[in-house]
Here is the input.
Amino acid sequence: MKKALLPMALAAALPMTAMADISLYGRAHVSLDMLDNGAEYSELNLSSNSSRLGFKASKEFGDLTAIMQIEQQVDYDNGEAFTSARDTFVGLRGSFGMVRVGQFDTPFKRARGPANLFGDQVGDMRNLTRVGDARFDERNPNTIHYQTPKFGNAQFNVAYSINQNDTATDGASDDALSLSVTYAAGPVDVAAAYETYGDDHSRGERDGMRLAVGYDVTSKLKLVGFFQSVDYEGSDALTSDVFGVGGEFKLGPDTRLRGHYFHRSADSDNSDSGLFTVGVEHRLDSAVRVYLNYAAVDNDDSVGLNPYNQARTTSVPGADGETSSGLSLGFRYDF
Here is the structure.
């Protein structure tokens, strides 16, 4: 913790003329959840949901801007700070686009954005798209990322993770390649991505593709669609397709009603799951919101997924063949 705070202390000690533009930011996101795995577990929990604290800096020189960011997880439920590293990088931005190195969300992970209605909440789509070792919504280390400038309404991303550990292992193929293209114009928001991992990666050899679409039908109604296909080497249970639709309706300027349904179809028999989520969110301020969600996952006999494990400190295994559910009252403050 002392090491994490040291850069802030050093920045504060520098003369103002030597400092770049530095900003502190964060998110406090907690929820009170009633979780039920459909078998023997049914309990009330308090969860911290991807809460974070970070600081970023930028310095312009000529036509270029140097950028850096350090972001860490904060767990408000148990008082632990800086429990794991989030998007942390250094790089350059200019008319050529952006290049950065470090550890951060892959383009594949960010490509779920147009259809992401319940991110970091009970009912998050990642409870079906990010199963076991078939994980693609990752924040890979040792990564080089290039983002092109915008070509009209389109933009391209290429990220290459050289290896998993501090030092590359001789002869090992534990790298990862992530590609995406995004397009946003008027009411249309689209992202498509592909990602692949080497055969020596600790979670196994795998590749996947996804497509996410958001469309503003009116000023009040937004519809979304999503498809993901994962091929996991040597496992029919982890090789799967996930697809679904959802929508958001503005009940007023500060209140939104949301819902989605996703289906996961695995190659192995009796291993499909369906995720249903509905929720209402009210924004007390541009930085403060509260919400109430209900989500449930219906499982085939050979699989036990649930709607509440991803991006949250609370983790309760589901039960094979059962319907697991969660009722969540959440509070989020961005600063």
Q: What stands out?
A: Helices lie at 2-13, 107-110, 126-129. Residues 2-13 form the longest helix (12 residues). The chain has one domain: 28-334. The first strand starts at residue 21 and ends at 36.
